[in-house]
Design a protein that fits this description.
283 residues; alpha/beta; Rossmann fold; Pantoate--beta-alanine Ligase, Chain: A,domain 2; 2 domains; six-stranded parallel beta sheet; three-stranded antiparallel beta sheet; 10 helices; 19% strand
């Protein structure tokens, strides 16, 4: 069956409703397009656990606190659709901005508590308000049984779990976090990697390698040394500037004093004007 592209909320909602009446389980992968192997791994996970897989392609303007970043975000729907068809995706939901954000519509607001006050929430004001708005709208439109997100966006995953639990408790949606897919040198796959020049790309590959080196040496007594060493070494590399590197509790996302199995190092780095994020657990 050829992949089907749907652009209206009403149509995707009715389509999924009919499929559910046939006893089909629906898996959903929300994306902003510019797809890569990491996205396709989410589709593959969905196909293993569901009868039908829906992928959304929508560059959500409300989660960009930087208008230049929004303008430069890569877009290639035709290429994305070919990749999804090859991966066995059943439906693409690719709405317009006006479809998702009608004029004069009152937007739902969310309180994510302390989850949204650190890391990405601290450095990108309003970002998670926008994430909450669009994921809530997409979940209402698609009504999936299961939804799949990459652990690369670790804080976002925590936010979405919180949103479903507290704002959509009767939805029955199960959220699954899937492993980070990396390039050969360890760089986490990201749509923003497309914007890197050859030299920038070489530098960006060092981010994960430096984190991995210090994470493997970690002990409960050297948190500040780990942090300062990682930041210093990355900043010494051409094109790279650390925005933040925090060691946080896996569940609360609050800073922790122990580099143990309950902790994770989370980082944001500017590669010149391209912002990259990554994270890594401690063993």
């Amino acid at each position: 069956m050829a992949i089907k592209i749907i652009r209206e909320i009403k149509t995707i909602n009715n389509t999924v409703s009919d499929l559910k009446k046939q006893g089909k389980r629906i898996g959903f992968v929300p994306t902003m397009g510019a797809l890569h192997k990491g996205h396709i791994s989410l589709v593959e996970n969905s196909k293993k656990e569901n009868d039908i897989t829906v992928v959304s392609i929508f560059v959500n303007p409300t989660q960009f606190n930087n208008k230049t970043d929004l303008k430069k975000y890569p877009r290639n729907e035709k290429q994305d659709t070919r990749m999804l068809e090859n991966a066995g995706c059943d439906y693409v939901f690719a709405p317009s901005v006006n479809e998702m954000y009608p004029k004069n519509e009152t937007q739902k607001t969310f309180d994510f508590g302390q989850l949204a006050t650190v890391m990405e929430g601290k450095h990108r004001p309003g970002h998670f308000d926008g994430v909450g708005q669009i994921v809530y709208k997409l979940f209402k439109a698609v009504c999936p049984d299961n939804a799949y997100f990459g652990i690369k966006d670790f804080q976002q995953l925590a936010i979405i779990n919180y949103m479903v639990k507290n704002y959509m408790p009767d939805s029955g949606i199960k959220i699954t976090g899937c492993d980070i897919v990396r390039e050969a040198d360890g760089l986490a796959m990201s749509s923003r990697n497309e914007r890197l020049s050859e030299n920038q790309r070489k530098s960006a590959g060092m981010i994960n390698q430096i984190m991995k080196k210090y994470h493997s040496q970690a002990s409960n007594n050297d948190i500040e040394k780990i942090k300062s060493s990682i930041i210093y070494e990355i900043n010494e590399i051409d094109h790279l500037k650390v925005e933040y590197y925090d060691i946080v509790n896996n569940e609360t996302l609050q800073p922790t004093e122990k580099a143990d199995s309950n902790a994770r190092g989370c980082i944001a780095v500017f590669c010149d004007d391209v912002r990259l994020i990554d994270n890594m657990p401690f063993s």
